[in-house]
Design brief:
Layout: H1 7-16, H2 19-26, H3 30-44, E1 49-52, E2 55-58, H4 60-88, E3 92-99, H5 100-117, E4 121-128, H6 130-138, E5 144-147, E6 156-169, H7 171-174, H8 185-188, E7 190-194, H9 199-209, E8 219-224, H10 227-235, E9 241-244, H11 245-254, E10 258-260, E11 267-275, H12 282-293
Parallel strand pairs: 3-4, 3-5, 7-8
Antiparallel strand pairs: 1-2, 5-11, 6-9, 6-10, 6-11
Helix pairs in contact: 1-2, 1-3, 2-3
Length: about 300
């Protein structure tokens, strides 16, 4: 059954859509990729791919092989994980990826509680914008991930927390604004924005477009990476900003920032938890269930 060694290469070609992309993903040469695919085609006596200038697509034989062997691979991986869990118990190391709002304002308290209940587990929390976290999760860099945008439908994802973007300003600036603000306000005042790959910014863009506006119509004076930088810019009176309510709860309560209400602009979004169920070691399953129970 030496041909089984060629199956991971076959899966990579299917998922990446070309021999060259599969070679890059697996850190192999393209001739090595071709060797493995030729090996499978000779063993089965039929072509698995139709080759085109744009890449490859599965033949009917390739589709059959992919769907059948993918189930076998999943069973093997699940068996490995079950054995690993039997040996490790609930101990283990979890690499959790999260976009900036969950990583900075939601997860620390929850993870603290979880680790007090599971002192034998270690967690590494990696934070970045949603786009980067999603890409890393799809490249198997994280056991679990939490992002602020809706993931592709083929991923195992569960809505976990709600969020709202609020328009905030320094109290001195807010005091000069009319009591009943409207959309024209955000075209006139200087604005600070998150970077283009941020889910916060993409949520704002979508909300504005639904009201026949674009972000280009706003007077953006500064673009920053991260919510703390965004808050600091507003506190320094560089401009107004849309930011997650999670990020400014303390500032709104203390009065160091003021929320500006625009009646016809309500911006809400959902955070999503991603996992690779059912292929979970026990410690990862424990954290997954804990997070969902607290959502």
């Amino acid at each position: 059954m030496a041909y089984l060694q060629s199956l991971p290469v076959f899966f990579a070609v299917v998922e990446e859509g070309s021999f060259s992309a599969a070679a890059k993903k697996l850190n192999l040469t393209q001739p090595t990729i071709s060797f493995h695919i030729d090996n499978l085609e000779k063993k089965l006596g039929c072509p698995l791919f139709t080759r085109t200038a744009k890449g490859v697509s599965l033949t009917i034989y390739g589709e059959k092989l992919y769907h059948s062997t993918h189930k076998i691979e999943a069973i093997i991986q699940e068996t490995y994980n079950e054995i690993w869990s039997m040996v490790q118990g609930s101990a283990g190391h979890i690499i959790l990826g999260a976009s900036t709002i969950p990583a900075e304002y939601i997860l620390p308290a929850l993870l603290g509680q979880f680790l007090r209940e599971h002192p034998q587990i270690k967690i590494s929390l990696k934070s970045n914008d949603s786009e980067t976290i999603l890409s890393a999760f799809m490249n198997n860099e994280f056991s679990l991930a939490i992002i602020g945008r809706e993931p592709p439908a083929y991923l195992q994802a569960v809505p976990i927390w709600h969020d709202e973007l609020v328009l905030v300003a320094h109290p001195d600036m807010a005091g000069q604004l009319p009591a009943q603000a409207d959309l024209s306000l955000i075209k006139e005042l200087p604005m600070v924005s998150r970077e283009s790959t941020s889910a916060t910014r993409k949520t704002l863009v979508n909300a504005l477009e639904s009201r026949d506006m674009t972000l280009d119509q706003c007077a953006i004076v500064l673009e920053v990476s991260g919510n703390e930088a965004l808050k600091s810019a507003v506190l320094s009176q560089l401009g107004i900003a849309f930011i997650s309510r999670w990020a400014v709860q303390k500032e709104l309560q203390s009065g160091s920032l003021t929320a500006i209400t625009i009646p016809d602009l309500e911006i809400k979004r959902q955070f999503y938890a991603l996992c690779k169920q059912p292929l979970l070691p026990t410690c990862v399953a424990d954290l997954w269930n804990f997070l969902l129970a607290g959502s």
